[in-house]
Design brief:
Structural class: alpha+beta
Largest sheet: 4 strands, antiparallel
Radius of gyration: 23 Å
Oligomer: single chain
Strand content: 5-15%
Distance between the termini: 30 Å
Number of strands: 4
Order of helices and strands: HHHHHHHHHHEHEEHE
Number of helices: 12
Strand order of the largest sheet: 2-3-1-4
Shape: elongated
Length: 325
């Protein structure tokens, strides 16, 4: 390994303490090789996230400019608020996308974390830039096709962004925050927000546009669920690995989630024998799932991981612990 890469691995991955630096600690070839592998993994995941977010931005922009804006149709959530205000005023949509989502970005910083807030801010800024500068042709004038395919491309854009670790519609962040404060489910909060949005659209625009907008919202919601593989607000994750203690510590200290550790037995062996092993279980939001998978792969790329949809949760360590820096 060249001195340049060795220096980066030590500073960014191994992160020696001030005392270790003072003592001039030397790292073994194994530690440096493992650190280099983790650095490559982080870089690959950042590239993947970037490509997913860019694809999501262009898909959502196509839904806006190629379908919805022409007929003044709207969607639910923050994008629906932006489209509704744009239809009622002369304020450009790209300006509204930024202004409407600023409170959600700040709330995301408090609710989810700094990295998520930065990614989301960049994703929404990128969407506003594409909407402002890139020309998309009007694909169709048929109201039903506009509603269905406008929702399809918008939902696909939001879903791809979520897969990349960001959102281009901040309503979910608000729903997570309010559900914790009010003790209701996230689904109930989202439904209430959208009832207000579509009711306003029916009053200020027309009932027909409001009804078509509901079709847009349904198409976007179903596409979103499809793109993120049907994952609901929370995902239960079961991890079976010989490195269970390292994984447990990572979930608590890095992800900031609570864990449950089961004592189990491996049922598969070359000679039919079983072996005791600790099984780690945790519940995370879908916005944290990408990071959790990356951290698990750093510790044990061969870990057996089972993920299952969880509609909602109550009690326990649902609220994230304040992490020590």
């Amino acid at each position: 390994m060249s001195p340049f890469w060795k220096n980066i691995v030590i500073k960014q991955i191994l992160k020696p303490t001030a005392e270790e630096i003072k003592e001039g600690r030397q790292y073994s070839d194994y530690e440096l090789a493992k650190g280099m592998w983790e650095l490559k993994l982080i870089f690959i995941n950042h590239i993947k996230d970037f490509l997913l977010i860019v694809a999501g931005i262009f898909s959502a922009a196509l839904g806006f400019k190629g379908f919805l804006l022409t007929n003044h149709f709207i969607d639910g959530g923050a994008t629906g608020i932006s489209l509704l205000i744009s239809a009622l005023t002369d304020v450009p949509l790209y300006v509204l996308l930024l202004l409407v989502n600023i409170p959600f970005i700040l709330l995301g910083y408090k609710t989810v974390g700094k990295a998520f807030a930065i990614k989301t801010a960049l994703a929404i800024s990128g969407l506003a830039l594409v909407v402002a500068t890139v020309h998309f042709p009007d694909v169709t004038r048929d109201n039903l096709l506009v509603a269905v395919f406008g929702g399809f491309f918008l939902g696909a854009g939001i879903g791809l962004s979520v897969r990349g670790g960001a959102v281009i519609d901040g309503t979910e962040v608000l729903a997570i925050y309010l559900s914790r404060k009010l003790g209701t489910t996230i689904g109930d909060i989202i439904i209430l927000i959208n009832i207000i949005i579509f009711g306003t659209a029916a009053y200020f625009l027309t009932i027909e546009i409001a009804l078509y907008s509901m079709v847009t919202y349904l198409a976007a919601s179903k596409t979103l669920d499809f793109v993120i593989e049907g994952i609901e607000e929370y995902t239960g994750v079961t991890i079976i690995s010989p490195h269970s203690e390292e994984i447990r510590a990572m979930i608590v200290n890095t992800i900031g989630r609570g864990v449950t550790v089961y004592n189990g037995k491996r049922g598969f062996g070359k000679n039919g024998e079983s072996k005791d092993i600790d099984i780690v279980y945790t519940v995370v939001t879908r916005l944290e799932l990408n990071k959790l998978n990356t951290e698990i792969e750093k510790i044990d790329p061969h870990a057996f991981v089972v993920m299952s949809s969880v509609k909602d949760t109550k009690g326990g360590m649902i609220k994230k612990r304040p992490l020590k820096h």
